[in-house]
Amino acid sequence: MRAKITYFALAAALVVYFVLVGSRGVLLIREGTAITVTFGVAVLVLPLIGVWFLWKTTQFARKADALAAELEAEGGLPVDELKRTPSGRIDRDSADEVFARRRAETEDSPDDWRCWFRLAVAYHDARDTPRARKAMQRAIALHDGK
User: Fold this and answer.
1) Is the pLDDT of residue 41 over 90?
2) 134: how many CB neighbours lie within 10 A of its CB?
3) Per the domain annotation, does 78 fall within a domain?
4) Quick one: CA dihedral 113, 61, 54, 102, positive or negative?
5) Whole domain around residue 19: which residue ranges?
């Protein structure tokens, strides 16, 4: 729940930023000189890219949450069996051990979105965010039949 609140707060801050930057771009374009119009267009491109990125990230999070809910309803969510340090951080060796099992499970069933979902969680626990995201994208694609 805390992560969702943080996400929405940051997304709202980004939207405010996009509006402010966009308005500055429009003001520059209204000046009408070649340089201000060029800068105005350049300034408008940044919020457009940001809106696109925010939209794609939100869609990804919604789809991943939907997969998690479906997997939870099936009773297939991975159990948290990781050892933790006294400070609460995940023990690296424990994460590597779970990851090895999840990778083997995914290699045995490469077309099962559930295996890819659990592999994504294992990547995340092992602090490999780029691979976690790619594994989750694969799980979403398999679930959606793409």
Assistant:
1) yes
2) 15
3) no
4) negative
5) 2-62
